[in-house]
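Hi there,

I know you've been waiting on this one. I reran it after we fixed the sequence typo, so this is the corrected version. Both the input and the resulting structure follow.
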Amino acid sequence: MLQSVLKEENAVVHEALLTHWHPDHINGVPDLLKLCPEVTVYKHQPKDGQSDIEDGQVFRADGATLKAFHTPGHTVDHMSFILQEEDAIFTGDNVLGHGTAVFEDLSTYLSSLKKMKDSVRGRAYPGHGAVITEASTKIGDYINHRQQRENEVLRVLKFGKLDVAASETSPERVSSWTPIQLVKVIYKDVPESLHLSASHGVIQVLNKLEAEGKVEHDGNTGEWQLTAKRPAL
């Protein structure tokens, strides 16, 4: 496809910007180099002879100005790009045109999403899926979805269930849960074949809450519980 487009437009690629290291985003580079041997390939935290992309670096072409900024979360090297002429953003795999994205670290990912949300008012061009008409709204939905999952984990750890009346108080006994037990409550309407996959997201939530001092983890049993309140001295 690229070869036919270049031929049709009588064009040459001089610079290629990679959002992150995942194979589906870099495996086409060898073919690009065959078509355009003089191309300079850029990637944050470069390997294999690539040139580095610095946070805030600006790339210019005829009619287009791209500003790069570091948005780790999906991967540690993940970069997004603002198309300044359109007030639009290339989101890589942090935000998709369908479904939700996977991430390596939830706290870092949320920080990047908030940064992305505040950066543009126009479209989003994701690495997968359809173009997103209102980038800020979509990214806000992603942030709200993650906050919802976090609230659900805390609710189950506190009450042992999701459906809690406003006046209901937590039981005196603190309950402990494994990630897969939490999944069976939070994702009860999801096929069991998908529970293991869902548990990875729950573990990310638990790791974030542990870093914030809200939950604690028993390394021997693999169980998690709300952090016990310390008696006042």
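Quick highlight: The mean pLDDT is 93.

Best,
R. S.
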